[in-house]
């Protein structure tokens, strides 16, 4: 159980200005520039971080390359890397509350969620890949007797990782842990508005025994630091979670530089489909509300399109509105809050604009749709339900990344699949039904990387997460994620 008094002590601690973490130490930006970090809790300044330049990225990449080539990490025994990463997992777990509170002050996620889904989940991710790394074998190919075909799994080199602000620790760990496990070096660029907890992870990694230069963090604007990383001739792989627009740019940067491999996780407009034969509609309404409104809808797999079979539509929409109105939005560091702050004023304004556009296109605002708790100075929005949304409407096609649910009625399975697949995205989906055959038909018909059946949003490290269509390529989590961070190298030996 989390303790409110302990949280309140941590929330009031000043946060020192932060430098980059490069070659095992904190350093200011070469040009000395800094960025102000505002807390979404009250809109007030929290601290300043280094605003990196291409030169800072250059130093970090050079350090990462040198570390990779001299083998201080890449050539260590798997058993050693395992020990260090397990220690890192322990350190993260020991500091979980501190990390979670720091992250919440930076990005606004409600503390119960941040503690589990950010800090503890990051510890679990490091532990998972630490335990996995010495169970990965090479192969002996089934060749003729007079040759030996060996397939090695070799670390690739320098990994550039660019991560977003919604779950910096969780998503950061999904990239950092498997990359380090396989022996690579990393230069990480966190979102400029959620860098603090990841800088702390870099420091803890060093304390755990990750050698200098192997894990570097350069902070600052995406268009400067992220671009320099993606254009670098010495970064071998780019792993990214963020918007489709940035993902497209990264592919261009790769093409213009060294054809580095790019693995992109680009969000979604995920359909959550409720059939009239759902056994427990009350539970479906509760879970579906959580599936869109938790973390103020700032979740890549959020069930942001609710498709409801027409004969239960009106009752179900009424139920989901009741659930939305019952959720307590408030100070994310108050343990009784169920939903914290929207991440930034820019995001909040974009969310409100989507509601306005939806109304202009004919949808009906059933609940929410406005900024609340303005007196706090923070950025809060009431969970919002829009009904009568047509499949072609803006709000049915574009990712809002806010607490806004778009509801559309459907007639039958065929129409549900057609509407579900009618966007450029394919990340997640939900199916609610008591009919096993229907569940399987929907799993096969809906194009998305993950499909929840009679729930929404459950997951753990054992299963991969990745998108279809324009939601991206490659997978985070599970043993499959390791494939991104190795090169297959064939040795053909004549005997
Ligand atoms: P979001 O809308 O979730 O902020 P972005 O794609 O803008 O999504 O941000 C995700 C990450 O990508 C952040 O770390 C951001 O700084 C970075 N980023 C933004 N623009 C660029 C760019 N032009 N090149 C590289 N990285 C970028």
Automatic annotation (TrEMBL):
Gene: puuC_1
Organism of origin: Roseibium aggregatum
Statement: the UniProt record of this protein carries the keyword Ligase: no
Record keywords, A-Z: Oxidation, Oxidoreductase
Leader sequence segment: none
Active site: 265
A matching Pfam family: Aldedh
EC number: 1.2.1.5
InterPro entries, alphabetized: Ald_DH/histidinol_DH (IPR016161), Ald_DH_C (IPR016163), Ald_DH_CS_CYS (IPR016160), Ald_DH_CS_GLU (IPR029510), Ald_DH_N (IPR016162), Aldehyde_DH_dom (IPR015590)
Ribosomal protein is among the record's keywords: no
Aldehyde dehydrogenase domain boundaries: 30-490
Protein family membership: Belongs to the aldehyde dehydrogenase family.
A molecular function GO annotation: aldehyde dehydrogenase [NAD(P)+] activity
CDD domains in UniProt: ALDH_GABALDH-PuuC
Protein name: Aldehyde dehydrogenase PuuC
